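User: Please fill in residues for this 294-position structure.
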């Protein structure tokens, strides 16, 4: 797996790892950010890395477990952060990183229907052991519910139209594949749909992924626990990839700054340089916010 960590220099700059400090990488993925932290917090500093996806976890374990005996790997969701930290007696914690959402591996190789460019089963689960899939939502959820998630999690202005189109098709057949869904969208949406900016399936796919993985609630819960876990002076850094995620981070940080639990280090979120975008197109919409625990 080739993988370029997003905003690496900036993340390291804000987390500012020093010798012997401990860090949590709540979304360790392919371990790009963690590898950089491990270089800085030698010789005794540890990283607790959490990854929810069992396939990514397995690959990571094979690749990284030998790399450092200062790395603890956990296959779980960061929604259980507090419990995980307690169970591993991991303290004190000087910094926590969240690099939200999916990896390019999910789009390119998972075969779970994250990409509207491929023809795969409509799955979209980060953890295939969970029950809810995108196909379950599309075929069996109340049409009004589908419209609601398209509007709320996709900010899709044609949510009503799309939900009616789904209603018609599912009277006749099961909607099981990503291209079947793309065809429905193509027919339902205006030809010049948001011509200049994004592919017409982007918002629908985003909405389904968020619903399947309950992402917004999980982000909120996870970051709240992270702030509690940090030592005074410890730093939290969050990379988000769309406006719904960024809004949650921004509001949570502001709320905690008001009650003097956090000092916000990024007045405005940091974005990615043109050069980084050229090397890694997924980074295009990335935004980094960081804060310090008071
Ligand atoms: C953007 S990638 C992280 C990339 C990583 N920073 C790197 O440098 O390789 C996000 C990762 O978080 C994982 N993930 C998503 N939701 C999660 C959750 N609730 N708990 C733990 N991991 C999660 C995804 O499976 C994915 O591998």
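Assistant: Residues filled in for all 294 positions:
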């Amino acid at each position: 797996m080739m993988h370029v960590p997003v905003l690496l220099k900036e993340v390291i700059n804000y987390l500012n790892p020093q010798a012997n400090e401990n860090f949590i990488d709540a979304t360790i993925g392919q371990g790009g950010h963690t590898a950089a932290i491990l270089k800085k917090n030698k010789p005794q500093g540890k990283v607790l890395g959490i990854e929810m996806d069992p396939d990514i976890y397995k690959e990571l374990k094979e690749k990284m477990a030998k790399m450092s005996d200062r790395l603890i790997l956990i296959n779980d969701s960061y929604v259980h952060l507090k419990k995980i930290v307690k169970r591993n007696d991991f303290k004190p914690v000087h910094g926590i990183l969240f690099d939200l959402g999916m990896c390019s591996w999910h789009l390119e190789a998972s075969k779970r229907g994250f990409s509207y460019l491929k023809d795969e089963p409509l799955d979209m689960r980060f953890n295939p052991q969970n029950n809810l899939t995108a196909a379950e939502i599309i075929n069996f959820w109340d049409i009004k519910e589908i419209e609601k998630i398209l509007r709320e999690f996709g900010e899709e202005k044609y949510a009503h139209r799309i939900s009616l189109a789904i209603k018609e098709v599912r009277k006749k057949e099961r909607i099981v594949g990503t291209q079947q869904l793309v065809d429905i969208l193509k027919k339902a949406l205006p030809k010049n749909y948001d011509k200049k900016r994004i592919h017409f399936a982007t918002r629908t796919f985003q909405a389904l992924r968020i619903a399947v993985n309950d992402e917004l609630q999980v982000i909120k819960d996870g970051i709240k626990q992270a702030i509690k876990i940090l030592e005074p002076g410890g730093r939290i850094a969050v990379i988000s990839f769309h406006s719904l995620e960024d809004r949650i981070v921004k509001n949570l940080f502001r709320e905690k700054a008001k009650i003097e639990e956090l000092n916000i280090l990024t007045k405005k979120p940091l974005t990615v340089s043109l050069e980084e975008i050229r090397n890694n197109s997924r980074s295009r919409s990335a935004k980094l916010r960081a804060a310090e625990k008071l």
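For context: The chain has a mean pLDDT of 95.
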